[in-house]
Amino acid sequence: MFHFLSGFSSFISRVLWGEISSPSLFDTIKNAPEPVVTMNFGLLGGQVAFVNPTNLDMAHLIDTLDGEPNGRRGETGLRFFVGGNFLSTRAKDDAENTALTHHHLLSSLLTRPADYIENTHQAMHLFLQDGRREISLLELATVPLRNTVARGLFNIESIPFDLHQALQGFSGLIQDKLDSFGKTLSVKLMTAYYSWFFSFIPRYQQTKTDYLVAAEKFLAQQSDQILQCFHTLMEHDDTGALPENLSGITNALARFIAQRVKETKPELAKDKDQFLDYLAAMTEADLQPYLHEATIKTLPILPLPGDMIVIPVSSALTELARNQELFLQLRHELQQRKFAEKNSEQKRDDIMQDREHNGLLHRIYLESLRRDFQQKTPEHLEAETIILRYSEYGVAVKDKQGEIVTQVPPGTLIAILNALPRFDPKVWPNPEKFDPSRYISDDDKSLENCVKSIFFYGKRKCPANVITEFIFQTFIADLVMNYDLRLIDGNDLGLAKIELSPVSDLDHGVELNTTRLSESVSN
């Protein structure tokens, strides 16, 4: 009887989900000779096309899918948690035709490198001012980096505690599904097709409630600042003319509400002066309806996507704390750059020079992006990193020469295995090794472009791509110049800690055998 029930249960599982639990599923997909492998996952999972992006024209594929009304169906779960259409989940020809407008608006708020360099300094100072010397690796990376993004977007010193906790709860749910390829895929499929089911899972429902409560409270707290941003528009210049546009307003809430005014009051959008006059005269009563819109209520989650900077920072800190030779060489190079003596504008130019000449910290940044979390094996990272899109109409997949490789049929969920190119042993010898020297001779930036492709697929590339390295270099430089690092429980991401030992001014002047260090790091 037991064997019968077990076999019957297995049969039902295959009917509903196909071979999604097969331990060889990922290897079958990864080792397939063709770049696109289409499989069926039963009545519930449906048809999924797995894409290895290594030699494909991903910009064409992503732009085509983002152009379909349900192209971002794979992100439906995010709509459940934030209570509405978050700006990144909207297809560019959706009913309101606003996705690219919102995307470009967010991007414009994240293109001020000098400001974010200063924000990083301030966030680091605030976080470390209590004198703690032994800190969770993830906390050390997450809290100041979220606050860096929040400072830049909302003009606040730090994220309110309840909102930070709500974001942390959401982040925790994301980490929960990263145990195996089958589990990751099943959660992705549930998110795409059955996100309503999350309402029946108490922890998921509580996470949603916590976010919405914290978001509404945060928006209410920001209402005065939003109105103040609009009221500055009443300040005319010497000619008595109103400002040409809203570019002087760097508060994301004010800018997005202004955009929503344009979308909800098209008669104002036709007359620039009338539009600016309306904003300048807005009252609390005028503002309230916008604060309760689903789209606006999703904006407090914006610091969470900034967590992607946490990944390379955590990877770099892990390696620097383990590798004393690399750590000392980086400190020496930062001294040579006189990085600590420069203001934010000068640091921006310095980082651009370091990037152009493949300097050490730039190479550490690239290797941190490629290697991802050091506490995870390449095999796990390859299987966990899945970007979802959906094709309602079917789509042609092209290679980098523009030739059609295959045709994905209509009604197919597309799973892009985005980590595969970063661990291909034909491109990256010993891909599990953290090795910044890979990029020393990368004069044509081909390796760099491969690593940074995570930011650049299609028109709606990551809005934070401009500022990410500026934040990374500033964060790492601040720690390396001011502290010695020691890693504790470094093999477990959840337990890993960094011990910070302040260095004296005398320590900064230490002479290094740079030839020996260079040889050691290269080898």
UniProtKB/TrEMBL annotation:
**Keywords (A to Z) from UniProt:** Heme, Iron, Metal-binding
Q: Which GO terms describe its molecular function?
A: heme binding; iron ion binding; monooxygenase activity; oxidoreductase activity, acting on paired donors, with incorporation or reduction of molecular oxygen
The reply to whether Cytoplasm figures as a keyword in the UniProt entry is: no
Which SUPFAM superfamilies does the entry mention?
Cytochrome P450 (SSF48264)
What InterPro entries has UniProt attached to this entry? CYP450_sterol_14alpha_dmase (IPR050529), Cyt_P450 (IPR001128), Cyt_P450_sf (IPR036396)
Q: Does the keyword Heme apply?
A: yes
The record's comment on protein family reads: Belongs to the cytochrome P450 family.
Q: Can you say what this protein is called?
A: Cytochrome P450
Native organism is Legionella shakespearei DSM 23087
Source taxonomy:
Bacteria, Pseudomonadati, Pseudomonadota, Gammaproteobacteria, Legionellales
